[in-house]
Amino acid sequence: MKPVSEDFAGKRVLVLGLARSGRAVARLLRSLGAQVTVNDRKPRSETAEAEALEQEGIRVVLGGHPPDLIQPGVDLLVKNPGIPYRIPLIRRAEELGIPVVTEVEIAYLLTDAPLIGITGSNGKTTTTSMVGRMLDRGNLPVHVAGNIGTALSEIAPQLKAEEWLVSELSSFQLKGTRSFRPRIGALLNVVPAHLDYHGSMEDYVGSKKKLFANQEPGDIAVLNRDSAECRAVAAELDVDVWWFSRRESVARGLMFEEGWVTARLPEHRDPIRILREDEVRLPGVHRENALAAAAIALAAGCPVEAIREELATFQGVEHRLEFVETVDGVCYFNDSKATNAKAAISAMESFTEPIILIAGGLDRGVDFRELTPVFRDRLKGIVAIGQTADTLLARGEEAKVPYRELASDIAEAVERAHRLATAGDVVLLSPACASWDMYTSFEERGSIFKQAVHRLK
Q1: Phi, psi (rounded to 5 degrees) for 104
Q2: Could you tell me the superkingdom of the organism this chain comes from (predicted)?
Q3: Does domain 105-313 have CATH number 3.40.1190.10?
Q4: Least trusted range by pLDDT, from 17-31, 190-204, 361-375, 397-411
C-alpha cells in the first residue's frame, strides 16, 4: 500500500509552470476531480495551451505569480522541476505546511507499474535509453518516459503491474519527491552541478539520494563503484546494492574483466561473460553507461542474450557523443549535452586523435581549472563561444593549446574548427556549459552544430 492517499477528488491544487509535465499533471489531476489552477509567469500571448486547459475546467493564471494563489485551503503545490524553491509562492506554501512536490511524485502515486529510476550528473539519457531497449529486446513489457519523450504522469496511471516504467530523473525532480519508490534505482555518478539551483553540494547530493529514500527490502540500488560519492551513498543503504565498474572486480554487478563485459552474481558460482569489451558499440566514457544499463537490465530480469545484442548494436543517443560526419578526413562529434566540465572531460578522454574542441556557453561562475590538464594532453585547438569564452580561452592558454580562437556562434565555430583541423583530427562540440546564453536548449545547439557540419561537404 502506498503511504499517501491517491484520492485527489475535491482537492485544491496549484500547478506551477506550464511546461509539458505541468500540463500533463494538471490534466491528470483535473480528471481525478481536483480543483486545479495552473500558473506561469509567461503572458497569455506566449501560452498557446491556455485556452485548451480552460476548456477542460482548469483555471489558468498567467503573466506573473500572484501571492494570493497560495493561501490556507490549498492542498497541494505541484511545481515545475526547474522553478527554484526561493520564489515567494513556494516559500509561502512551505510556511503554511502545504506539500510541495514535482510531477514524478504524482505519477508514482497513481501507478501500479514497477519503476526503474535513473539519475546522475552525466549519462542519464544514454543509460535510460539502453535499459528500455534491452528490456524490450528481452520481451519484457516496458515504457520509457519522463525527461525522455512522454511525461510520467501522461503514461504512469495507464500501466499494469507487470509493465516496467523506466525514467530518467534529475536532481530537480527528485528534490520534490516524498514517497517516490523505484523498484530499481540507479545513481550513475555525482559531480558538482546545478549549484546555482541547489545552493550547496550537500543539497544537490541529498536530492539525488532521495531516489533511494523509500526503497524496501527486495528493491535494488545500482551504483558506480568507481565513484567515491556513489560508494558513500551506498554505505547508507539497507537494500541490495549492485555495482558497475570499469576499473575493478565487483561481487555483485557488471564490470570489464580480462577484456570482457562480465556479470558477477552471488547466486552464480561462475562469472557470466556477456561479450568482449571491444564489441561494445558505444565509444569512450559511454561504455560506463553501457555497464550501468546492463546491470539495471539484469537486475530487472532481462535475459543475458538480449543485453548482449543491445550492447553490440546500440550506437548512442542524439547530442551525446554523437558521430555526425567525416569531412576531408576529419570526424565531427556532437556532445552538446555536455553541460558541465566533467562531461566535457569524459568526452575528450574518449579520443586518442588530436581534438579541436568547440566549447562555451552560460556563465555560472565556474573557473574551469579542472579542464587545463586535459586541454594540455588532448587538444590541438579550442574554439570558444558564449559567455564563458574568455575563461575557456584562458584555460587553453595555460595549457599551451596551439590554436585558440573566438567565435560568435556555433556556425562560425564549426567553420573555424574546419580550417584548423587536418585529416585524422576530431572536431568535438562538448561545451562544458548550459546553452541558455545563446540557445533555448542543448538540443537546439546540437542541431545547429550538425547542420553546420553538413554544410561543409
Answers
A1: -65, -30
A2: Bacteria
A3: yes
A4: 190-204
Cell of 187: 545513481
- CATH number for domain 322-454, candidates 3.40.50.300, 3.90.550.10, 3.40.50.1460, 3.90.190.20: 3.90.190.20
* Residues contacting 4, CB < 8 A, separation 6+: 109, 178, 179
For 236-248, the pLDDT digits (tens) are 999 999 999 999 9
| Domains in the chain: boundaries | 12-98, 105-313, 322-454
Q: At 303, is the pLDDT very low, low, confident or very high (cuts 50, 70, 90)? A: very high
Which CATH superfamily does the domain covering 12-98 fall into?
Answer: NAD(P)-binding Rossmann-like Domain (3.40.50.720)
Sheet holding 164-168, edge to edge: 142-146, 164-168, 115-119, 184-187, 220-224, 240-245, 253-257, 260-264, 272-276
pLDDT tens-digit map of 45-62: 888 889 999 999 999 999
Ranges assigned E (strand) in 104-183:
115-119, 142-146, 164-168
Nearest to 265 by CA among 306, 222, 234: 222
Distance of CA 415 to the CA centre of its chain: 30
Binding-site residue set:
120-126
Instruction: Provide mean pLDDT across the span 268-289.
Output: 87
What is the model's pLDDT at position 2? 52
User: Once rounded to an integer, what is the mean pLDDT over residues 264-286?
Assistant: 87
- Percentage above 90 pLDDT, the chain: 79
Amino acid at position 240, single letter:
D
pTM of the model: 0.77
Binding site for ATP, by residue number, is 120-126
- Position 301, amino acid: G
Q: What is the pLDDT of residues 370-416, one digit of tens each?
A: 999 999 999 999 999 999 999 999 999 999 999 999 999 999 999 99
Q: Which helix (H) or strand (E) holds 184?
A: strand 184-187
Residues whose CB is less than 8 angstroms from the CB of residue 340 and which lie 6 or more positions away in sequence, other chains included: 121, 122, 191, 192, 193, 432, 433
Q: CA distances (Å), 185 to each of 114, 168, 233, 359, 383, in order?
A: 11, 10, 12, 32, 39
